[in-house]
């Protein structure tokens, strides 16, 4: 994919099995209608420790943030079967229209479910959404659906019929993949395989969002 920066770290955790065990102790719940599964927040102390370690990587790969970064993170499990997907879940999506917001996917599963795919809208050629181009993207998608209908209830794989896949992160176990959150993307889920709600058996990931701190925080 051109014009967008990605970064990847393999074997990022020294003890991934301990992290999976910690996930089994969390209380997962459905948080937003967009995500086809359940999530549990990563403890704040863990997020802060990770942020300290990851900030130099973010600065190098995506451009430094003068005042540092802030982070939110969740354990995540995809659990919805293809037949349960609502219309918005049948398309690629973005995490927001601000290119400064970064995202991380850390893959902690050994299942047939794949990594993450990135996509281009066929009718507009758009791969990343901004406040400026979002109305054009939305109108084009509405026109496509009005003319040819919704895609069948299934997870996005190749992007057909309204998108084309441009890049794939395979999602190897204990791999962390970083990208700009405004790039069109989707998890590559095998709709024929089990989607277990058990963190030890399901498609467990850790999802994180990073935003640059707008100004230096004043001391007390």
Question: Can you give a write-up of this model?
Answer:
- This protein has helices at residues 16-24, 44-62, 134-148, and strands spanning 6-9, 37-41, 69-78, 102-107, 116-121, 163-169, 175-180, 185-187, 204-212.
- The chain is an alpha+beta fold and 220 residues long.
- The strands form two sheets. It has a six-stranded antiparallel sheet. It has a three-stranded antiparallel sheet with strand order 6-5-8, with no helix packed on it.
- The mean pLDDT is 93.
Major beta sheet summary: 6 strands, antiparallel
* Unreliable runs: none
Q: What is the element string, with H for helices and E for strands?
A: EHEHEEEHEEEE
Strand content: 25-35%
Helix content: 10-25%
Average pLDDT works out at 93
Rg is: 18 Å
The coarse overall form would be globular
- Content-based structural category: alpha+beta
Instruction: Please give the count of helices.
Output: 3
Compute the number of strand runs. Answer: 9
Distance between the termini: 45 Å
Strand order of the largest sheet: 1-7-4-9-3-2
Draw up the topology in text.
Blueprint: E1 6-9, H1 16-24, E2 37-41, H2 44-62, E3 69-78, E4 102-107, E5 116-121, H3 134-148, E6 163-169, E7 175-180, E8 185-187, E9 204-212
